[in-house]
Design brief:
This protein is mainly α. It has one domain. The protein has three helices and no strands. It starts with a helix and ends with a helix.
Length: about 100
Amino acid sequence: MTILLIRAINLFFQVLIYLILARAILSWFVRSPYGNLYKFYNITIQLTEPILDPCRRILARFGFGGTIDFSPILAIIGLSIINGFIINILRVFLF
């Protein structure tokens, strides 16, 4: 049961990281608001914007609000740290 919970949490964070990566890569290619690729890109924007917007505000506060968006990098690092922290806490308290 506990291993299933750990795997589910890990899978959740991995899906978020992959969605952020997909959004970053698709932002280079999607220019037309028509077609199936734009629909997928729009869905990834809706799913990842609550994570990336606070990262953008943090980076803007430190002067990194330029033409290159570093918020996906910060978000991936933050999600990886949070994932590891939650997994370690679960392992300590459940095992």
